[in-house]
């Protein structure tokens, strides 16, 4: 099962490399050429050494006309020099092609990861740390990139080098070849055992790295809150705990995988010494030339060196293997399934109905039960209730962040599941309690609601949202850049900018989720005026805790434990003297 999973992971990686298979196989062919040229080196040098040894022996024996055969040695050295140049050129262009293949493949992988994020349901991110997802897109992709860049050609070169070296050894002496080959299975068995021991630690290392990234991201986001409550020490302790786990798993992974090098080196050096001794004995017996002994010794080294290279790369390879499982596990996550059966009508009125809707986040606990409500076009519906009553869940269902378990939600009489999510959501505008702005100019942040809007449209939206005057007071006006944390504008100003963004989107249905809960009274008045403008003529859903802000709503839904326990206008509900009345009066008394 594990072998099958590893094979699937390799096939996944190959799917990205195969797009550039011409460059890839070009690099492999050059690597083969480079390996052959490298294997020829001991043989060529052996010819020169054998000739030189014979010449010296003839001179010692006073053979007539004996001397150094400089012409032969010159020709051998020219061949050796040409081989060396060809070897270096093959190495250069092989690395260049492989670098290009790896970088383009990883670019495609990151692009697919980004696209995958946009296809995943909200429920996935509700159960995952943002930092862990970020770690998969950054650190894990880098691990695969480094392994392909640093290891792939070296592993191919190592396998080919061992193969060609054995062939040359067989050509010179089959007896010494047997001695040299013995170390290969021995090194393989040791490497396999150590890999089995170290792989779980590499998986733990990747897991804790993702957890650490998530923790750091959360703490940087909530840095002010941590300072406010004096939780710096607690934050440091938690960081040390996660960091300690990462350090322990990283140490074990590095230490265990590092055992490969000394063990394989011990086997290789033993074989090297044994071959050298047996080769010298054959020279004394007259069955082998001294040049061939030198060549055999070098070929044993050429077998030893690739084995050492593979063992040294084992940490990178295993880290990449763990990263591959995380990345392709992420890419295999279940996506949102579009079951579009009808086109969204060109003219949307905004009539919305919840028809006997039931929903649960988990199978053992139903949150929304038999929920029914009709909202007419242009109505303002306020949703109130205690924490956990199901207010946000109702909005999640309305936006199709989740689909209902039973029943249906309809827009102008059509089940919303028959529309594509993108088309359906394009009819909605949302102003949330946590206003989101990104690092760009104020103008582009407003234009985010309608990327085709002109500069004049942006200014008109800002004026309607009562934020134009504030923008004008800034040094660069609409070209002022919102920083990465959006800390150079206040909460209320951010809220007004998001209202301007909603204005420019011109939605048919509005969702306002506690849009004024975190601002002062003056800004609340500005936001209320802006919201009144944007809500005019649109179907609006307002989640509110300040009940004084929803007195004029056409319909107030009072929810508790996923059910509507009261509904009506403010006056009707106050006259009933029930849950809403008690809640409203308690707030009034507090005020």
TrEMBL record:
Membrane-crossing residue ranges in chain numbering: 24-50, 70-90, 152-172
Membrane topology: Multi-pass membrane protein
Pfam family, one: ABC_membrane
Cellular-component GO terms for this entry: plasma membrane
Localization per record: Cell membrane
Keywords attached to this entry: ATP-binding, Cell membrane, Membrane, Nucleotide-binding, Transmembrane, Transmembrane helix, Transport
Positions of the ABC transporter domain: 352-586
UniProt GO molecular function: ABC-type oligopeptide transporter activity; ATP binding; ATP hydrolysis activity
CDD domains linked to this entry: ABC_6TM_Tm288_like
The ABC transmembrane type-1 domain, residue ranges: 25-319
Protein name: ABC transporter ATP-binding protein
Organism the protein comes from: Jeotgalibaca ciconiae
């Amino acid at each position: 099962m594990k072998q099958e999973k590893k094979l699937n992971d390799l096939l996944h990686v190959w799917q990205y490399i195969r797009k550039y298979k011409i460059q890839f196989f070009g690099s492999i062919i050059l690597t083969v050429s480079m390996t052959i040229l490298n294997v020829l080196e001991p043989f060529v040098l052996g010819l020169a050494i054998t000739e030189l040894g014979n010449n010296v022996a003839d001179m010692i024996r006073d053979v007539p006309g004996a001397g150094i055969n400089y012409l032969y040695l010159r020709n051998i050295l020219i061949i050796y020099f040409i081989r060396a140049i060809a070897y270096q050129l093959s190495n250069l262009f092989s690395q260049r092609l492989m670098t290009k293949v790896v970088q383009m493949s990883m670019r495609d992988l990151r692009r697919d990861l980004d696209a995958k994020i946009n296809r995943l349901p909200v429920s996935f991110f509700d159960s995952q740390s943002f930092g862990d997802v970020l770690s998969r897109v950054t650190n894990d992709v880098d691990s695969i990139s480094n392994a392909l860049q640093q290891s792939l050609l070296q592993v191919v070169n190592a396998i080919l080098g061992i193969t060609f070296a054995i062939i040359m050894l067989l050509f010179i002496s089959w007896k010494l070849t047997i001695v040299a080959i013995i170390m290969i299975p021995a090194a393989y068995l040791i490497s396999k055992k150590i890999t089995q021991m170290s792989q779980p630690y590499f998986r733990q290392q990747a897991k804790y790295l993702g957890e650490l990234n998530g923790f750091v991201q959360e703490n940087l986001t909530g840095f002010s809150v941590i300072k406010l409550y004096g939780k710096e020490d607690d934050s440091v302790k938690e960081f040390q705990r996660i960091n300690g786990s990462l350090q322990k798993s990283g140490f074990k992974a590095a230490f265990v995988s590092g055992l490969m090098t000394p063990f394989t080196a011990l086997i290789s050096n033993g074989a090297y010494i044994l071959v050298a001794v047996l080769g010298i004995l054959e020279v004394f017996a007259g069955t082998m030339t001294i040049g061939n002994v030198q060549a055999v010794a070098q070929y044993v080294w050429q077998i030893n060196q690739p084995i050492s290279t593979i063992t040294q790369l084992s940490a990178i390879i295993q880290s990449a293997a763990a990263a591959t499982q995380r990345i392709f596990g992420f890419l295999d996550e279940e996506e949102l399934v579009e079951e579009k059966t009808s086109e969204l009508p060109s003219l949307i009125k905004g009539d919305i109905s919840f028809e006997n809707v039931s929903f649960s986040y988990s199978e053992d606990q139903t949150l929304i039960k038999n929920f029914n409500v009709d909202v007419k076009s242009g109505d303002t519906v306020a949703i109130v209730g205690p924490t956990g009553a199901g207010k946000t869940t109702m909005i999640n269902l309305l936006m199709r962040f989740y689909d209902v378990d039973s029943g249906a939600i309809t827009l102008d009489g059509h089940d919303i599941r028959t529309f594509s999510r993108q088309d359906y959501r394009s009819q909605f505008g949302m102003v949330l309690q946590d206003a989101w702005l990104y690092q760009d100019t104020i103008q582009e942040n407003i234009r985010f609601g309608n990327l085709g809007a002109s500069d004049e449209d942006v200014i008109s939206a800002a004026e309607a949202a009562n934020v134009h005057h504030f923008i004008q007071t800034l040094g660069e006006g609409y070209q002022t850049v919102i920083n990465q944390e959006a800390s150079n504008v206040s909460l209320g100003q951010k809220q007004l900018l998001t209202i301007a963004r909603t204005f420019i989107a011109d939605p048919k249905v509005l969702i306002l989720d506690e849009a004024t809960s975190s601002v002062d009274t003056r800004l609340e008045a500005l936001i209320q005026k802006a919201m009144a403008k944007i809500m005019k003529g649109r179907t609006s859903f307002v989640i509110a805790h300040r009940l004084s802000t929803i007195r004029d709503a056409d319909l107030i839904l009072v929810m508790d434990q996923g059910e509507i326990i009261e509904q009506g206008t403010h006056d009707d509900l106050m006259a009933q003297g029930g849950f809403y009345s008690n809640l409203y009066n308690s707030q009034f008394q507090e005020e």
